[in-house]
Here is the input.
Amino acid sequence: MADIDALILILARRNARRKSPRIQTKKRFRLHQNVQQLPDELLIERCRFDRDSINYLRGLLSDKLVNPYAHNHPLSVEAKICAALAYYTSNSFQTAVGNFVGVSQSTISHAVTHVTDALVELGEQFVNFPPPESHEREKRQFRDIAGFPDVLGVVGCTHIAIRAPPGDPHTFLNHKSFHSLKVQITADVNSTITSVVARFPGSSRDAFVWRRSPMAARCAAGCLGTGHLLGGPGYPLRPWLLTPVRRPASRAEELYNQALRKTLRRVAVTCRLLKKRFRCLDGARVLNCFPEKCGRIIIACCVLHNIAVGRNVPLPPEEGAAAQGPNREEEEEGEEEEEEVGEMGDEDAESPQCQLGWQKRQAVIQRHFENL
Here is the structure.
């Protein structure tokens, strides 16, 4: 009998030590902010787009961002777009951006990737060179700046700071001593980006980037007709790409250089607007991705920039004033390139295309600047 009592006592103690069964609780999900309830001023400050433009982006991207297999209260298309826009606009880490839309850092990261990929797919739709039927209008608008004839666009490069990539970081170290992608854009008189190349390391020269860009091939194929682009001293002289006279020997050549540089300033203004609108590109904090993904983020920002310009979406007042005001940094980049490259013409002057470019430049000088 005593054995039975001892066994009962042992079992009772064992049952007492067992953990009470876990009570199943319903998962809680943080509510994502409703963009429709936020004022336009806050949206422009945080996302650089107003409510109507975010709705427009939702219509453009919804087919690419909806995941039919998602579960557990996924982000809406609108929330994904705002998360990505807040990241592009922010100068802070993704965790801080996540606080804005009420989601985690990993969710923000996935949203940025999905939205970036969707925007890159729209690149050809929103970043394209003016068609032939609009060339005369483009020429008139550019001529109104400084009297330079037959200009269809301006081309230039800017540096976008990135983290030092593994494997071959020194090729991304630019002449300003930070790691970057060298990004080439062409722009029209309204600061719309008409082409972009964002895949070359920061140590690349302007002429190297240009010769390997799709825009150079299009120009060589005659897509500009009788028009031409303007480029800085680091670019090769071509019939379709006019550059400054390196050592002007007459008043006409000096006037030509002055008009070219004043017109070329539009590309510097465009680069500043792009960086002010999307602070992830302004260098205050580097893009913390591999170069290929950095290039895709840059192209996505260019697509968004053109959408914003086309829809007349303003920058916050302080940012807009800074972007339009005088800033020598972008303009001096071409001058630094000239010092770095030296007399690039020594290796290029004998090429047939350079000779044709020289002839066209002389004709422009004589016809339009000789009698001023």
Notes: The radius of gyration is 28 Å. The first strand starts at residue 151 and ends at 161.
